[in-house]
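Archive entry. Fields below.
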Amino acid sequence: MSIEFHLKNVLLEALASLYNYSATDAEATLQPTRKDMEGDFTVVVFPYTKISKKSPEQTAKEIGEYMKTNLPEITGFEVIKGFLNVKIDTHIWINFLNKTYPNQHFGCPRKGLNDEVYVVEYSSPNTNKPLHLGHIRNNVLGHSLSRIFEANGKKVAKVNLINDRGIHICKSMLAWQRWGNGETPQNSGKKGDHLVGEYYVLFDKEYKKQIAELMADGMKEEEAKKNARLIQEAQEMLRLWEAGDADTIALWKMMNGWVYEGFTQTYTQMGVDFDRFYYESETYTTGKKFVLEALEKNILFQKPDSSIWVDLTDEGLDQKLLLRADGTSVYMTQDLGTAALRHGDYDFHKHVYVVGNEQDYHFVVLKMVLAKIGFKWANYLHHMSYGMVELPEGKMKSREGTVVDADDLMEEMIKTSREISQELGKLDGMSEQEATQLYRMIALGALKYFILKVEPKKNMVFNPRESIDFNGNTGPFIQYAHARIQSVLRKATEQGLHVEGDLPENLVLDKKEINLIRTVRQFTLIVAEAAQNMSPAVIANYLYELVKDYNQFYHDYSILKEEKPELRNFRLRISELVGRVVKHGMYMLGIDVPNRM
RNA sequence: GGACGUAUAGCUCAGCUGGAUAGAGCAACGGCCUUCUAAGCCGUAGGUCUCUGGUUCGAAUCCAGAUACGUUCACCA
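PREDICTED_STRUCTURE:
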């Protein structure tokens, strides 16, 4: 039983014995004592003054006395302004270390501890242009969340729904067909997704020109947008695609192939991966069946033009189209279908969609419609809604060319990482290959941490200059702590220092040392909380706290030069444990940590 | 207009289910490397927690309203 359990019990006893009051579990609350105060656990006694009919100070004193005499682990207490701060015998903390040290699973991923399957859909790009900063937040969040679930014992399936069909892809195809002169990634040396993206931009440029011309001839803007030759040709191409026209399909396959090669490179560089890809071209019709069935059962209704709708006015929402008059699917229909398909594939207990908050409404409706149709698992769907990424100058706008390209950004950061590393010159003797790996590790650590430390649902400002900073609350700061710990441990081994067996319980430790143990001990709770809240930021902020504590400890105490062996052993142990927590915590953020930097 | 979200230091962000003097980093200024990695540590300065009211022994935190900003309410995805 944990010390918290015993403390709580004795607190309940105290209330019963002193004031003849049987408190509920919730009324007996315990919190960790603030770092700047003396003590380990704090009881806030204000709520008890009603039953004690005494001042907070007097009540705290009485409860403190009772607890101390009835629980030997309590070595003392202090009352400050109605707060009862209880001090615990150090051997409790040493015990924790002795128990935890051999447990390699402490804070480690505990894959497949139970059989619940969680599906996490993330990334889900369109295939008409390369990935940008917004996608980076999506990918990094989805990847991290998957690992957090795994660490909590879930089986996780990471899935990516590729939006590989539709008018936007046709725009790129049309522009390439018309102005491409047979340009390919091979003959131009361009990355496939970037090349396709260029033609998408080119389409837009030419399309705008046509609109302007039509408007100059007196046409209204709205009409000009519909009547421009280019857009009509793109729509015709989409029709051909849906009809299975061989040439169109061939062109589509070729250009999508280029994009996939590009995406694969970007994903590899980013360090994210997937268990399964779904393609919209293969699934976009699957929802239709369910819609028609539901119509039979009168769950949905049909308008005179024969389009099919769901009525959500009773739920306080609008009517929503599910099938067009010509029988083709819309976005909602497709998502209904893929959700059902996935449930068939995985029989999931939770299905998380990592999708931006501009689609909040869509997912509310999706869940409602699935429930209405009669799928009990509709409740298992969860939209992990995250905020937009903005630049210091404001929103990213593709039209104004302010979009930060994912590949460019990563490359830029790796370059900076190399420059700073070489300037610091700590990598002498490291092979070129190792060093190159390290630059990437640091750059990606900086980028991912910068994004993940912010609460997902909040919009965030991405300042390229600050993200590339490697000091303060950053990924490299945490990576650096890991490298220093490993360096100490290496030296210990070189000097033949091995810590064996348990640490003696009667060690005398300083406040900062105990504090470090307490912070390490929290890790398990943090991992659970991160999964509960679906927030990698919980882990990021915890790791920062931990590393700050460790850096202080590292600065204030000698480890290898400590002369008392048992104290030196303790410091080596706690260092190793902090190192492990950092490594596993960073793993959950999708960030690697180096042994040297 | 309806719905949803956000508002904390000059900037970027923490602040758990209400608890002690509201915390970090960056930027500014000052100190610490003959000692385990200074990508580090310590210090100074910086606040009407958007505003108003309510609940409470106690509110940045909960509730109501106001204001500002963002998103959304497409036969786009």
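CURATOR_NOTE: The CA atoms of residues 156 and 529 of chain A lie 18 Å apart.
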